[in-house]
Each structure stands twice: as structure tokens, then as C-alpha cells.
TrEMBL record:
Record keywords: Signal, Transport
Designated name of the protein: N-acetylglucosamine/diacetylchitobiose ABC transporter substrate-binding protein
Gene3D superfamilies: Periplasmic binding protein-like II
Subcellular localization: Cell envelope
Keyword Cytoplasm set for record: no
Organism of provenance: Streptomyces thermocarboxydovorans
Family: Belongs to the bacterial solute-binding protein 1 family.
Amino acid sequence: MGSTSAENNGTGEFATGGVDRRSLIKRSAALGLVSVPAMGFLSACASGGGGGDQDKAKAGKKTAKNPLGVNDTAQMEFVLFDGGFGKEYAQDAVKIYEKNFPKAKVKFSATQKIQSTLQPRFNQGNPPDLIDNSGAEQMDMGVLVGKNQLADLTPLLDAPSYDDPNKKVRDTLRPGIVEMGQFDGDKVWILYYAYTVYGVWYSKKALDSLDEEYPKTWDQMLAVCAKAKKKGMAGWTYAGKYPYYIPFSLYPMIGKVGGREVLDAIDNLEPNAWKHPAVKACFEAYYELYKKGYILKGTPGLDHIQSQTAWAQGKALFLPNGSWVENESAKVIPADFEVTVSAPTGLDENDKMPFGTIWASGGEPFIVPAKANNGLGGMEQLRIMLSEASSKNFTSKVKSLTAYNGGTDGIELTPGLKSGVAALELAGENVLNPRIQDWYVQLQKEKIGVAGLGEMMAGRITPAEAIKKIQAFADETAKDSSIKHYKHQ
């Protein structure tokens, strides 16, 4: 794929160093609509066939040690996404399940191909009991909920917590975790196990070598990138093959510039939501990185591992990513790298929200299928994972927080994890949580990510063209009666 390191000739709006960016905020983007053909749709879950229901394990007796009434002899099948967090933390939790239910067999497996592996089983009515529905092949959770494919996790949330029988599981979770699992109404369909800080990741050592601090305004960002370029380091890289990583820093920037209501409108698929001046200004800002040659050459052809490796090797300074990156790149990050995350750089002092505004939310969505043979067993496995011991085990092994509100006492935090905790403290109440990535997975990944942002950041379309394209995709999704639609309450 083509290089993104095209030089700007010093003329035009990008040579002004940002003089026009704020004026973009002050005027609306008058962009027309174009008709865009639909992209290939990821195979949606069927409403379910097969004989899963009659094969369900009978419930066991509820006791203090078994508050969900799990059948202590039934097999429990657990399929984990084999990604940046690895599988050891889950295997450790499985051992506890096996110890508690010695007559029960646990069938555990890990794969990166969640959809292609499990979609047929949903369609046949014999899905696993617990699934970590994550990764590039994540099944569309909006579709799963809309097709009644998931079990309501309220029994788990209302069960006594693993450590304290006087406290419900829901009362041990970080703020926002329960709400993230809801789509409409009180039922909770998803339990996000990891607590992810999204933002701009960098090496503090590399930034210090430039005698610079993290830039708070976009003019400062461009200046830092210019200085890095003179020293042979690109300003940015990203997962070019999976450009839906770009929103990890772009979305919270849009929220910072225009206010959280701009992101809510985007999530709600409101008409012209993508035409908001804050969206245009932020798209234009990111496009400057391409125009000025501040993106690592060849980035559009890199996958997430390759881009993270190039970043770890010092070929690029900044990387939009989530807090799993420290563990996923552990083998290639130098010992003195000082992994650090920051909230996104804003436009200027006129932004609606303060510097420090960040995207942080639940990650690693765990689901229990409605037609699971042993759904209660799947919920019990999650109850075990939400204990303090399992949470500490996860945090110490994979350098990330969990949905459990605590679990860091006595653990020596890694640089990235420490900076993530500091970023959350700086953000305070200014934490954003765009829902489009879990409400409309295909729209977010294939259309906004690959066909929109990916094309723009590779220089193949302009910001205006990207906005027009993305708005058309959003409108198409809003009008599609086969898709269940969700809104912020």
C-alpha cells in the first residue's frame, strides 16, 4: 500500500499552522449526501435453530457456596479471545471453577477467530456457555441483542459477590460497567471484564529526548511531530489494516472539542451528526499529520502488531491504542521505554472540555448465549473472575485494570498501568464512553474505520469526503429496519 509520508509543499491551509482550524469550529460544514453502496455485511446471527434448548443442563441446588444454583456435574464450555491479554488469567480462573465443582468438566479454548468459529454454533443452537467476544472477528453485539441471542446477566449481578456474601456482584464493579452492558431497558447483556483506558500512547523516554512535554493543543502536537521528524522519528503510526484503532484517540478529541453531546449524537445515529463542526475540525487536524508527512511510512499496510512493534522500536512517537498495548507488546518494548498514555491533544483553549478528557470504559466483552447448555456455569465462571484474587491476578499478569473496583493493592504497577491510573485521576468526571463500537460493530469497523478513516489517513480521500461517506453510512444504518437501533437514555 502507498506511503503516508507525503511531504507538504508549504502552501495551502496546512502551512498556516492551524490558523484556520478554529474557524472550522465556528462554521458548520455544509456537506451534501452521496449514495454509497453497502459493504459486505458480516453474517448476522440467525434467530437460532437446532436443539439447544432441550439439551440445557438442569439447575443445581442454590447454596451459600453456589448462589447461582450451578449444576455441579454439567460441563461448562468457555471460549476466550486469544488477544493482547493472553489466556493465562482465564485458565487460572477455570482452575478455581474446577476446584469448586470437581465433578464438572470444563472445556476451555482460545481463538482469534471468534465469529467464524462461533457464528455457525449460534445458528445451530449449540453455542458455548461463556464467550469473550472480542478482536477483529468480534460478533456484532447489537445484532446478538436484537436477535435475542444473549442471556440477561442480571442473576449474576444480583448474586452475592465471590468475596463478600453481603455485597452483590454489581456493587463491586467500577462505575459505568453495568450501564455499558445495557442496550435498552434494565437487562444487562454483556459484562466487560477489562477496564480499558484509550488514548495516545508514547515512550516518555523518547519524548524526553526531544526535550518536550506531551502536547495539549494541536499546534503543539504539530511542533512535537516536526521535531521528531528532524531526528528521524515519525510522529505517529497506527494499525493501518485495522484503522478503527484511530478513534481510540480521535473520538475523545471530538468530545473534548465539541462536548460529549457530539459523541452522543453520533451514537444515536442522528441526522447530520457527523457534520458537526467539531468533527470536521478534528478530521482536518488528523489529516494534517498525513499532509505534513508525520505518519510512519507504510503505516496503511501495517496490522496492529506491526504498528505496535514499530512504535516500540522508536520508529514512531505516538500510537492510538488501548491499555492492552503494554502487555501485547511486552516482548518488544525496551526496559527503559517508560510506556505512557495521555488523554488526546485538543484543538486549543476554546475546546468545550478540559485537557485530560479521556475515553475509558469496559473492554473484553463477555457474553453468555441464551441457548447455552450451561449458562449458569458461564455466569459462575464470571463471578469467580470478578473476585479480588482473580482481578489482582489479571492486573498483575496483563498490566490492565478489571471491572472489579479495586484489585490493585499490593501490586507493583507497570509504567503503562500507572500512567493509566494517573490519566483517570486527571480526567475525573471528564470520562467519555462512545457506544457506537459496541452498538454497531460493522458500521464502526468496516465503514467508519476501514472505508472512512482508513482511506482518509492514507491520503486517498479528503476529510470532507470522509465525513460525507461516513454520514451516508450512518444514515444507511439508521434507515435499515433489519438492524436494532439504540439510543442514549
